[in-house]
Design a protein that fits this description.
The complex is a heterodimer of chains A (326) and B (210). In chain A, helix 4 crosses helix 6, helix 6 runs parallel beside helix 8 and helix 8 runs parallel beside helix 9. Chain A has a single domain, classed as TIM Barrel, CATH 3.20.20. Chain A contains 13 helices and ten strands. Chain A is an alpha/beta fold and 326 residues long. Chain B is of the alpha/beta class. The longest helix of chain B is centred in the N-terminal third of the chain and has 21 residues. Chain B is 54% helix and 11% strand. Chain B has two domains: 76 residues, Methyltransferase, Methionine Synthase (B12-binding Domains), Chain A, domain 1; 121 residues, 3-Layer(aba) Sandwich (Rossmann fold), CATH 3.40.50. Chain B is globular. The chains are: A alpha/beta (326), B alpha/beta (210). The interface between A and B is medium-sized, with 25 and 24 residues.
């Protein structure tokens, strides 16, 4: 029997996996790094290290940046330098110790030591200035947006260096949502201009420094951005939703990139979820996407579910499909 | 190209810095404010159609709506009557328990560009607040309820049911958002459904003029 890591490698290279990869099983996420995404508790509000106010109201599935006149960080994109200050990535060795211990405890033959980065560059721009203002600024103030993106890239490269120096990760799991469920937020041309070079630098840096796998999360439609994803160096697109017609993407791009998802969290993970519904959605995904260049899994951007038991039930149903298909 | 045609082209291209000047030139050339407004509404119809087809994306739609809005600012003093829109008022909001506003804002922009006055109630709007807004505002012809989450679909059902049970009349209810299907819209008693912001503007016009 292959290890989880070997099995994933077989899936990605179009070899001979001996089972379906179960969602995030091959990635050991190191979440206790001293520099990480800061989120409020449910019902709470924080100001994060970039000065962005984030609220997580009771009863919601996630946290939201606050963009009223009082809280918005960038009040004028042409003067973004007056408002934006990247946080320091320098931390004491003591602060790194728990993450180093967690990485050491991983059997790297079995799993990839995986660092987590969120939010991504596109998300950071709209966290800082609101979605509408950011999207218009790509047209109205492109130079300023290029400068802002370069500044965020600089920060991410410093962060990457810290991760590499302290943890020697095998994989990076990087969030950045690039679309709604039916469309990318921006055109492929605009994406190519603003984001392809930025991510090429960041993902290239990780790969030049021993990181084997780049996993990028965007739980959205983004089929029109796959050529850019390949160019950036993404190995696995996690969160690929059913609206992307995943079997067609596998047919077209398999061998250059692997797709993780084809099970929309929204249709399996809700109050009153049922095993039968999960079984049906997992079976549909596994049968239509097949054994290679595909990892079945919910589109959720971490190895958890919003409602207790859904993640585990999904894993068990993937096991069932392994028995039927392999 | 006539001045009105130039206005149309620049609105469609989202040239918000050029449109006010062109609108002024179109007025100076003797065009009526209403004709210029109608031309801009037509441009936004084209923008909405292109968005629905996937030919353009959110930024292009936003800058076009902004360009039209700048043009309307120039026209306002020249428009007849109280300046209110001929299609009436649209009350819009994201249903209770749901904080997603981007989709709702896009729909609001496009419906406004089609010729409605907008009353935006924001996000997490209780069913009763929709009803109160219909009472508080003049000439409400449309109520638009948005919801992005599967888990807030019951709140959308409640909103539509409460609005319909209020006894108030003279308007239609349109719903939309990622998990909403035409079947679900019909099941909960909505009068219309739209899958995206471009279609929403077309459907809004259709419902309000039916």
């Amino acid at each position: 029997m292959l290890t989880k890591r070997q099995n994933l490698a077989e899936v990605m290279k179009g070899g001979n996996p001996d089972r379906f990869v179960k969602q995030y099983e091959a990635f050991s996420m190191i979440m206790n790094t001293p520099i990480t995404r800061i989120k409020p508790q449910i019902g709470g509000e924080i100001v994060n290290e970039w000065g962005i106010t984030i609220r997580w109201p009771e009863g919601q599935l996630g946290a939201f940046p606050v963009h009223d006149a009082e809280h918005i960080v960038i009040k004028d994109i042409t003067k973004w330098r007056d408002y934006v200050k990247a946080p320091s990535v320098e931390c004491s060795e003591e602060a790194w110790a728990p993450a180093i211990a967690a990485a050491k405890a991983v059997d790297r033959k079995d799993q990839y030591v995986t660092v987590f980065v969120a939010p991504g560059i596109f998300e950071m721009t709209h966290y800082l200035m609101s979605m509408e203002e950011a999207l218009m600024a790509y047209y109205e103030e492109p130079e300023a947006m290029h400068e802002l993106i370069d500044y965020i890239v600089e920060f991410e490269l410093k962060l990457a260096k810290e991760f590499i120096d302290h943890l020697h990760p095998d994989a990076v799991f990087h969030h950045d949502d690039w679309g709604s469920q039916i469309s990318s937020f921006i055109s492929p041309d605009m994406f190519k201009e603003f984001f392809e070079p930025a991510y090429k630098k960041i993902y290239g840096y990780y790969k030049d420094n021993g990181v084997e796998l780049i996993i990028h999360h965007s739980d959205s439609y983004a089929a029109n951005l796959v050529p850019s994803m390949i160019e950036m160096g993404i190995d696995i697109w996690q969160g690929v939703m059913t609206t992307n017609h995943v079997p067609e993407l596998i047919e077209q791009y398999g061998g250059k990139i692997t797709f993780m998802g084809d099970i929309d969290s929204g249709v399996i993970d809700f109050p009153g979820w049922t095993r039968e519904n999960i079984a049906e959605k997992v079976e549909t995904a596994c049968r239509r996407c097949g054994k290679l260049y595909f990892i079945p899994g919910a589109s959720q951007g971490l190895n958890v579910s919003s409602f207790p038991g859904v993640y585990e039930a999904t894993d068990e149903e993937i096991d069932r499909m392994t028995k039927e298909i392999f | 190209m006539t001045k009105i045609e130039e206005v149309k082209a620049k609105v469609e291209a989202g040239k918000s810095k050029l449109v006010p000047g062109l609108v002024q030139e179109a007025l100076d050339a003797g065009n009526s404010a209403q004709d210029i407004l109608d031309a801009m509404v037509d441009s936004m119809g084209v923008v909405g159609e292109k968005f629905s087809k996937g030919d353009i994306f959110v930024p292009e739609m936003l800058i076009a709506a902004k360009a039209m809005s700048k043009g309307v600012d120039v026209l306002k003093p020249h428009l007849a009557g109280d300046g209110s829109s001929k299609l009436g008022t649209c009350v819009i909001g994201t249903v209770a328990g749901d904080l997603h506003d981007i989709g709702k804002n896009l729909v609001s922009l496009m419906i406004e560009s089609a010729g409605f006055d907008m009353v935006d109630l924001g996000v997490d709007v209780p069913a009763d607040t929709f009803v109160q807004a219909i009472k508080d505002n003049k000439n409400v012809k449309l109520v638009a309820c948005s919801g992005l989450l599967t888990s807030t679909m019951p709140a959308m059902r409640e909103a539509v049911a409460t609005i319909k049970a209020s006894g108030l009349t003279g308007f239609k209810v349109i719903v939309g958002g990622a998990p909403v299907t035409p079947e679900y819209a019909e099941e909960i008693g909505a009068d219309g459904f739209a899958p995206d912001a471009g279609t929403a503007a077309v459907k809004a016009k259709e419902l309000a003029t039916a």
